[in-house]
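Risk register update: the risk of archive-format incompatibility is retired. Evidence:
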Amino acid sequence: MFSLPFPLRDANASSGSGDLGDLPEWDLSDLYAAEDAPELARDLDWLETECAAFAADYEGKLATLDAAGLLTCVLRNEKISSVAGRIMSFAGLRYYQQTTDGARAKFMSDTQEKITNFTTPLVFFTLELNRLEDAHLEKLLADNADLARYRPVFRRIRAMKPHQLSDELEKFLHDLGVVGDAWERLFDETIAGLGFTVDGEDLGIEGTLNLLTDPDRARREAAARELARVFQDNVKIFARVHNTQAKEKEVLDRWRKMPSAQTGRHLSNDVEPEVVEALRNAVVKAYPRLSHRYYELKRKWMGLDRMQVWDRNAPLPMEQTRIVNWDEAREIVSTAYAGFDPRMADLAAPFFDKGWIDAGVKPGKAPGAFAHPTVTDVHPYVMLNYLGKPRDVMTLAHELGHGVHQRLAAGQGEMLSSTPLTLAETASVFGEMLTFRKLLDGAKTPAERKVLLAGKVEDMINTVVRQIAFYDFECKLHAARREGELTPEDINALWMSVQAESLGPAFDYMEGYETFWAYIPHFVHSPFYVYAYAFGDGLVNALYAAYEAEPEGFQEKYFDMLKAGGSKHHKELLAPFGLDASDPAFWDKGLSMIEGFIDELEALED
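Archived output:
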């Protein structure tokens, strides 16, 4: 199933104007030349035939296979995943380029249905794998080194064993998946189709959100109030989507005997619930030391008695408004990457040169940014909505980090390349940190350094504090939905219950802000995704501290970690750096870096 794998956190709203240069567009021909390409028709035909043949050859027989036979079975399954992933990547990326285009939406939907139908007979594969006795599987893995390579895949599949349903029910749920996807599409198309008018100018959601960083406070307020008005006009649709998605999840979780709404996400992330809980608790405990403290500083800088929600991402009074054109943005990020290791810049270069980035803001284009890995025998694609603000440069650094990670992990093959979400943010946040440090080292005055530090702290607060508040909102939403249908007012109240706690006492909240949960795609596309951002930021802060303390040999260890993809657990990946995410003190190390930046900002006030 194609999904938006790396949706942009709400941190990086931006605005811009002027000549941004020649913004690149995707060239999807590395996947397929067009929706009527003969190669696409060939692959669909192959997929239909091979799925049926795979089921005929193996259903009911996995327990009888020797090591060589099981390896052949796994390799055939991997090839099916690769071909299906290639087709859906093409259909999905075309759709996200223009979500309001009916033909593209129909093509994606029709393609999704075909692939769902073709692959339904394959549901038996994981079910039968989970019925193998542990001792039998261990013997097979011991007998064949090539098969043993897939041990992490088997481990993750078998983690779902306690939550597995009957073969017939699993096939039914597989078929029903396209119905759940329709609610995601309703959300995407509703968001993309929203119209806003600010100071007489007609805008889409991306342009309106971007105005929340406008230097003109009256314009920011006008944008915030217009967002609230339009969200309120459409809140019943968004409430229906959330009610339906949360109820569907509750039913599935109940049938699968999941102990909590979050369990499925933790399993797919290959992370222990207690690790996530330690992260969540460390961040919530740090709210007063981080966001509360920073926003009080910002309130003083802005000369305000009270901050309003439209001031949260406002540029600082001492910040010079400037537009960074595309060529300059490329130079900044590429130089920062090369300064760490030339291989990083080399891996990023084709994104700029070969049509692997779609950068411009266009009507109907999905908002935000993401990097989609497609399949391991092609390459990733990055989507941006680039408008030239300095923070857009950080978004470019972030998404290119994903792209570099995905390229390095591709060597693991289709089943082992995909990194759990908790570690999938590592390279992206590290890429941001490299870019930030490069800019900070080049600061010529204390004022310039202050602006850079403040911008980084805001991004970190949006990445850590804001996302953990989002996670708490989701936890409350899913818990409340288990008790019954939620009205828009119910969801609004849950949203507001996490806002003051996380942002702190510097803020007032305008009427209408209670609906701002409505536009955030993570809640619909990937429930409980958001803690991965905080996980990634904390992990990278600890990693970067290790790099500063002992730079010798760090690059090789870092590249080995990225190349591992999903072939190792987070404990194995972090061990060479002397780090352990299961240690509660680990998260305090990461948070202390943010605290240190705020310390420096306060010192600059003296």
